[in-house]
Amino acid sequence: MKQAKTALILIVFAVSLLVATRVRADGSFPLLVTTDWLEKHLQDKDLVILHANWTNGSYKHGHIPGARFLWLNALAKDTPERNTEMPSLDDARETLRSLGINNDSHIVVYFEGQNITMATRMVLTLGYLGLANRVALLDGGFDVWKNERRPVSTVTPAILPGEYVPTLHPEYITDAGWVQAHLSDVRTTIIDARARRFYDGGSGTPPGHIPHALSVPFSSVVDSTNKLLPVDSLRAVFARAGVNTRNHLVTYCHVGQQATLVFLAARLIGCDVSVYDGSFQDWSDNDLPVENPAAKK
Asked: Rounded to two decimals, what is the model's pTM?
């Protein structure tokens, strides 16, 4: 009886650990960490915590102890042609160096307020730069951290230049040519991550969506506190949308930011997934076909 009780306790502990960190199937660094996990690991020498935002004003007013400020434009370039593009290899190398990222670093990215897609864009980008198995999102972000009365600091940490040299993983993103060539591929599912009104043709220029795409709005994979839904609930979201999760999935949105949240959700349930980086902005600029459900009514 005592042995059975001990075994049950171990099973419960193991399950709780999996839930707390959403570990990958190969047992590597988790995709998603809780505030409790992060507070317990603040002193890990190989841990790099990144406060992701467009400006550093909020970072100066308070951040997670030891966190370094990640300016989003450093890894999400705007150009005259496109918004939110991947950085060049040289720019990426310099940014990672300035953040103190090394070959043994493990990275947690967090966000403030409703800006979760800013952070998931950084998770995608760091994966693209070769850090996929060593980067995680803080579930709920800084607001949950503060609401739980966890420590906040205004001290900017000293950062030694990092030595990590990025290696590109182009499989994390795709382009218009690939999407167009696979629109009728039964092994590929295109997912529109924008708000439903854009998919339905009630908003947007042009109105409508990429042909054959299914709608999984980015807001449908998180709860009211911007925590990712439990794995079973995420599976249900994709199932209700008609997504075959055994297919290769490609997510897109307006410019390639909201799509990264659905990308992360798909990875949490074990899907093979990439992001159409130019997204609908690129698709429409190239005058590619669009389905408009509103026009059929």
From this structure: 0.90
